[in-house]
Structures are given as structure tokens and as C-alpha cells.
Amino acid sequence: MDKKKGFRIEKDSMGEMYVPEEALWGPQTQRAVENFPISGYRFPREFIRALGVVKIAAAKTNMELGLLDKSLAAPIILAAREVMEGKWDNQFVVDIFQTGSGTSTNMNANEIIARRAGRIAEEENGQPVSVHPNDHVNMGQSSNDVIPTCLHISAYESLKQKLLPALEELYRELEKKAGEFHDIVKLGRTHLQDAVPIRLGQEIGGYAAMVKHSVRRVETALDSLAELALGGTAVGTGINTHPAYAPIAVEKISTITGSEFREAENHFEAQAGRDAVVEAHAAVKTAAVSLTKIANDIRWMGAGPYGGIGELIIPPVQPGSSIMPGKVNPVMAESLLQVAAQVMGNDAAISLAGLSGNFELNVMIPVMAHNFLSSVRLLSNAVNAFTRKCVMGLKADRKRCEELLEKSLAMVTALNPVIGYDRAAKVAKEAYETGKTLREVILAKKLVPEDQLDRALDPVSMTGPQAPDK
Fold it and tell me: Where are the alpha helices (DSSP H) in 307-446?
């Protein structure tokens, strides 16, 4: 193979390859780059950080066990830390849609770290040092346990550091609004039709509870993600590892990340299945479902200002139309709704990928990582924006709430215990057909004494259980 300008020639087990002269990666990565010109999507920062964490932990463990000389382990650890900290993100060049085990990306990391470690050692010692990507950087590992481990670490950290804080802030703000709006009584709605009165604070409090449950579901899912496959190597048996390697390496991962990870109870399950990821993303998807309901309700209650419900006043954050001056749209809610739809699509892809475990390995791990981390990033950002630019500035139109409530025939429900369901239905029908109020029809028919009617039709009293008049 003749030398080509701007490239160097490197060899792997399949022969020679042209590799860009300044690239830290090597021939296996280059083959993957040429084999998979699919999407342009790359593994995100969170996953690359996890790769650096794993390589640090592995090198430290192998050095402690006397399997890797300190002269090699030390520069590998330094190079891996640079990967963890994001110094070489632009060197991770393999497409997401690659080998299903993620081998190409594991080798991308191994080659970057090996070449960088060699340079570090040479700078310190003044002479070239050969660091092998497989024999040294990948010692005691296989792509089949490294990539699932990185998926769990990155998913765990993303949920803990991004989504949970976003949901918790939204919960707190909704709770504040529930208290602020507690004394406002408005029309309830079921089947999109008028229903009995409800406090606006009760309605918003329901949204807060939905978010609180989402937090609990995500926190519960973290426990499954805390199990790491590292130590199973190729098929779960742990071939080519020291018996003490896995527990020590996992303990070091916990120390580096500050999170409590543990060795998988069963390495065969940890590599053949990806159920923990399916479970965790289901919690993310459920949060997206809840947020869809909340965002839709808020934008519907803010619909108007004259032709809609108009019970809420949504903060104006930008002009709403390129042709209609003065129009303001519920854009923050719409942004969140679109993100929620994307998360639900990602969940379908993750579910399909999760059932693609064949014998000892799942072969769709990269696409699971891509979709999972994308969901968490998108939903976290959208929730933060929705909280800060919509929920925090929400106001109630008290006058509009009272106006709609006064016109509603659903208030007659409170008379069921007094005059019975059938009579109450006739009263509502007559009021609707004649345009009279419920009070006018009932008093004209002398169905209920006026003082008792006043108590029965008090909208505040309808917003909670009440003992019947004796």
C-alpha cells in the first residue's frame, strides 16, 4: 500500500488501512468509519464520558491485580481521564448505526486511549512506548460487557443529573400554583363537557401529583440501571479476567462517578438482555405521557382570549403569527408536546431493540443508547423551558372562571341528594330550553326552600365532600 498524502498506514488483523495522519484512532475505527456512512449521528458526551470511566477503572484494577505494569497503566489512566472529561470527543467518529454490540466504538476508545497514552509516556520518559489497544487498554474487557456497562452508566447519570432535577423543579412550581389558585372555583370538565365545580388549585395540584409520580418511577428505575455487566467479557463467563476483577472494577466506577453501582447478579442476563434499559425508558415515556396531558390542559384552559375557555392566562413569550398582529400562542406547551411525541417514538425503538437479544448478546445496543440519551436530553430541556417560561408565569382569570361557572347547568348535580336524579335532570333540561337559571326553575316549582337552595348551589361547598342537610 503506497503512502497517501495526509494519511498514515496502519495494520490490524485484516490488513493495512489508510488512517488520517492527525487522527488518534487507528485501523479498526477507520474500517468502521468506511463501513457505516449511515446517519452522521455519533455517541453523545454522556456515553463517551462513561467509556472513559470504564477504561480508567479497568486499568486501575488490572494494575492493582498485578496484570498491567504501572508504566503502561499510568498513561492509560491519564488518557482515559481525558476521554472522560471530553478532551477527545471529536475523535469518536463511528456512526451510531454500526455493529450491534458497539464493538466499533469500544475499539474507537481503545485506539484513541492507546495512541494518546503512548504519547503521554513518551513525553514523560523521552522514548517511544508501545501501548496496545486490545492487550493493554481493553485488558479484562470485551465490547460485549463494556458497551452495556457504558449504556447503564450514561443512562443512570443522565436521569439523575438532568431529568430528575427538571421534573422536581416542575413539581415544586406546580405545587406553588396549586396554593396560589386554591381559592378560585371554576367549572370542572369530563368528556369535554361541563361538570361539577372544582378549585383551580385542585386541578393544578393533580398535575403536580402526576409529576411527583413520574419522579418516583424514574427513581425506582435507577436501581436496575445500577447493575453493571462489566466482568462478563464475551458471553458472560468472564473469560480472560481475574476472579477479583469485576467487583474491584465496579467499585472503582462507583468511586469515580460518585454513584452506587454494583456488579450484575447474573452476567448472562446482563449481556443477553437489555430489560433494565427498557424499564427505565418506560418511566421516561410515562413522564412524557403525563406531561402531554398537563401541557394540553394548560393550553386549552388558556385558549382564547375571547373564542376559547380563557380560564388561564399563559405568559406571552413571543409573537404568535406572521400574519395576525397581536396573536400569542402557547408555544412552550407545543414545544413540550413535540418532545413528548419524540420520546414515545424513541420508546418504540428501544422496546424493539430490547427484544433483540439473541442467545448471549443483545445486538442493538448503540441504537438503544442513542434513543435513551436523546429522550433524556430532550425531555429535560423541554421540561425546564416549560417550567420557567410557562408554569412560573401562569395567571388565572378569576372573572372568567366565575362567569363560566354561573352559566353551567352541571351545578344541578348538587341537588341529587335533595330532589333525586330524575327531577334534577328535568330541572336542567328546562333551564337549558327556557334560558332560565337553575335557581329560577327550582324556586318557581317550589322544589327546595330558598335557604336550602343557597347552601346546595354554593360552588365552594361542591369542591369537597359534604354531609347532607338533616
Answer: 331-354, 365-386, 398-407, 416-419, 421-434, 438-445
Residues with catalytic function: 191, 321
Assign domain 408-463 to a CATH class.
mainly alpha
Q: What is the pLDDT of residues 181-205, one digit of tens each?
A: 999 999 999 999 999 999 999 999 9
Nearest Cα to Cα of residue 455 among 409, 414, 413, 410: 414
Angstrom distance (rounded) from CA 165 to CA 215: 9
Domain 144-399 superfamily per CATH: Fumarase/aspartase (Central domain) (1.20.200.10)
Residue 391 CB neighbour total at 10 angstroms? 25
The 10 Å Cβ neighbour count of residue 86 is: 12
Q: How many CA atoms lie within 13 A of 357 on its CB side?
A: 21
Q: How far apart are CA 13 and CA 32, in angstroms?
A: 14
Cell of 470: 338533616
Q: 3: Cβ–Cβ under 8 A, 6 or more apart, which residues?
A: 9
The residues, any chain, with a CB within 8 Å of residue 21's CB and separated by 6 or more, are: 6, 7, 8
pLDDT mean by block of 10 residues, the chain; 470 residues: 87 94 97 98 98 98 98 97 98 98 98 97 89 98 98 98 98 98 96 95 98 98 98 98 98 98 98 98 98 98 93 94 90 98 98 95 98 98 98 97 88 88 91 88 89 86 76
Q: How far apart are CA 153 and CA 427, in angstroms?
A: 63
Which CATH code fits 7-139? 1.10.275.10
- What residue ranges do the domains of the chain occupy? 7-139, 144-399, 408-463
Share of the chain above pLDDT 70, in %: 99
Query: How many other C-beta atoms are found inside a 10 Å radius of the C-beta of residue 454?
Result: 11
Phi-psi region of 78 (alpha: psi -120 to 50; beta: other; left: phi over 0): alpha
This prediction's pTM: 0.94
- Contact criterion met (CB below 8 Å) for 96 and 366: yes
DSSP 3-state of 33 = helix
